[in-house]
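Here is an idea for our session: we take a single protein and study its fold together. Which protein we use is up to you, so please pick one and set it down. Once you have written the record down, we can walk along the chain together:
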Amino acid sequence: MSVDVRALVDLPDNCLVEIIQKCSAADVLRLQVACNRLLALGRLPNIWVNRILKDAGFCVPRKHHNYHHLTKIYRGLVHPSETNRLEFSGAITDGGCQDGMESYWVNNLFKHNIRDMYCSEIVSRDVRCMAIHSRDLPFTPDEQSPPSLGCTPAEMPASGNPATPQSKPRELSFDETLLRSIGASQPGGANPTMVVTRKVIVGRMGVVTCPVLCGVVLAGDVDLSDSENPGGGLARKWYKGMQSREVEYLSGVHDLESLLFSCKEGKLVKPRAVVWDRAGEWVEFDSSGDHGSGLRPVVWFRFYKKQEFVLRNSRRARERRVYLSKEFGEMGVVCGRNDAKPMNKIRINASWYNLFRHHLLQIDPTAENILDVNDESDDGGQSDGDGDEGVTDPLQNLTQWMDFHNDFFLQSYAGRRNMAGRDYMEISLKQPMVGNMVGVCLSTSENLMSEYDEEVRPEPNIDANIVWMVGNTISID
């Protein structure tokens, strides 16, 4: 049976929908102004759900399957007006704090400074941390007041990785004030804001004896309305999102070769990209699809050890990259190098001096007179005496202060200045990461205790000071 088709609108609806699906978002909007029929078809939720999945790699939850929500989500994912550093508050960890000190609490990972640090207890296993988007909290966390910490046991599931032994029950530490206030903050579980992360920054800068070596960053959306399980109950519920099969496997993967074989065997989701950086290497996973209430792996990262960093451009290292690029390329994974200039925060110069001034005064309040510098002098900084006055070089004052106090922190940090860029990794995601909760699994650390002449402890812990998210938020209320 032949059909007389003289215009586009003469086609049946199912054919028009197929044509619209092939159009870009801009063309779909143009078609909507043509006639009422194309306007109605162009506003079908399936049109925009598939367009968002194709252009941004994000599977929109069913609760947002209406035209107005979908167009807001599309604009926020594909054409954001601006990106900023996102504010997250550390809420839960199963690694505790070193020596039980609140100054090493997990929230330091997500603070917008590099002075504070998260240091786990002395453990010989991975450490898992969770943080919630601060704008979704009913109050603004006060960084000056110490957290009210609570503890609750958490049973670990059977390990999915044959290389990882059956784990013992872990003890969860959580910010009790934060978790108890969340239950009544979002009635009905309707989160008004969608959090989109486009860049992940991981750092282990400073003088740390056991800096993190490799780990995994995860993301997901959680229901913030749970007044029936405040405190420890909510911590245990959320922690289940860090107990998936993928997390169990990735917690035991400490090198890129092992990750490659796990992907080939189908134990892990297919990677989206593999990138070699000055500081190390990372793998971005395909995070599209509905993961329910669990957290989905987004990035696996690994820093180079000291010797690897020195030899990262050697012939053997290049041959390794060629081999891995070929193997991953056969799986359809994009491989490349990130040659962006690293953030220079370790050079001993005036900016370094100002950055750590606050920390120096905390170590020794008497250093105020030594550290003060008068740059404005009538004689251009030259002494009119015997050379004992008019010192205007902050580095000279700093060196004198170091020699006088023989401070372990400063001398060790200055000795690492030639390794600039080794402890900072800026991961630009090819696919936006959506979720109001972030999970970080710190798998293992680089043991440098003997290098810093620290008393040998029974086991190394894991130290890190930066897990920052850069992106934008989408208001969908």
The first strand starts at residue 84 and ends at 86.
